[in-house]
Amino acid sequence: MSRFPKTTCVLAVSLAISLQGRGREIPSPAVAEAEAIYADLADSYGVISTIDSGLFRTYQGKDRAAWERVYAEKRKQLADELSRTSASGLSPLDARALDVMNRHVRDDFPEQFKDESAPPEHCQDAQHQNLSMSSLEGALYACFTELGNSLEFEGQRVTRVSALGMLEEMSEETRRKKLFNAFEPLWNAVDGEHDAASPYRRLLPLVVSAADGQGTTIDSAARTIGVSSEEVEHWLEQILDTWRQVEGGEMVEPWNYFYRGGEATRLLSAVTQKDSFVAVNQRYYRDLGADLRQLGVLYDLEARPGKAPLAYTDYVTRGRLVDGKWRPTVVRISGSYATGGLGLLNELVHENGHAAHMMAIHVRPAFMDLGDALFVEAFADVPSWNTFEPEWQRKYLGQAAPEAVSLRGLFSGVMLDVAWALFECRMLHTPAADPNAVWTEITSRYLHIVRHPELSWWAIRVQLVQMPGYMVNYGLGAVLTADLRQHTREALGPIEAGNAQWFSWTSEHLLRFGEELDTSTLLKQFLGRRVSPRALLDQIRRITPKQ
Ligand SMILES: [Zn+2]
Asked: What's the whole-model pTM score?
């Protein structure tokens, strides 16, 4: 994933800004002044976050305290500048720049710098009643760091991410069951006694009332692709139902679900060692026309205590014109790769997709950000889904799993995301519902997973508690990924094993705009039509039914 404020683009402004006019317009002096300060503010934020992540201790000779002073000063200057600048009389593009900056200042750049990857709360705080939404989210996020990064299994500590990889690979069912049950302290921290007082069930009504008037993350994702929230829910059901039919009817215990989808991972385990991840990524992206090394992507991939419990990609500093010359964006990727495996390799390819996206944005400072979360997550999967294509595996790993086996691996993971998205749709509709019952109904019906309503095993994704509703960006994101991939293939030919035009063509037509265009306009323009679930359904049907 890439981290986003939960409110990003909730109020997407639908300005029809023609592409022809872009770049030629000179910003009004007041807006240009604000943008220069804004760029400094965003950079100081990126640098402090990077220092807090542990990647480096100083940047350009300044330590954290010095950067925090820069942040506070720029934040104040910008607030003053923005309050002095009125949108009346501005060109549409300047007005949009002003609007975007105001939104980010409000949502992402608090007066006092706040380290979002290290909330002040602890996991046990989640037991306190009457917490605010953000404190409860922070406490539950801390549970994933404190408990999820330290699951006890066979006398050792394993991270949640590693455990999910191990569940695909361990051949003894008794060990799989034991490892699955090692998640129990995390589930119990999130869902307490499975009653109305459980931290998660206290969180949902807070999320729903915070979204009052502006809509939830799900409404915002629906807007991004130009459909209603009801239609989103219908699509998710349609996708899961297609999978249900293609996949066959054999029921499986939840601790065996990952193993069943993990055959390709097992077949390829010898050629997906973690030491090879960065080199494979560099080679693949070079073949896509993006030289990650030349782009200067920074990697922080070793597991260490206290590290963020999920992989993410973020800006260090954003590209901008300095004395008439473009100073490129600097991005960093954080992950914890204690083990190898196809799933984790896929994840790193996804993170590099975010990095390529960030590097491709080439606009004025106000617009140097990614756009709606749904689009951002979906786009990062455009290159990463290829890791499950036999042609990709042959070229980059030296051997391939059979096509149906690989696709089953890809889509059993994607279908869990779709199931979580549907879970969140239903939970946000009916916050008083029992999450175990909702999850059991979805997973038994569509994924053929044996019912275990006594277990809160849905609680294995950080996003569910850190920003409820966010999973739609993965579940519905799969629709967009498949659609973007199909459209790209139609324009460029095969992309499964690299395509030298991919990065420049995609940058030119899709990525470079940043927030200059709102995402729904951008997608309509890129695809030339509305987003459709057809491409994803076709991909799922590539898996032949089991005889
Ligand atoms: Zn991502």
From this structure: 0.89
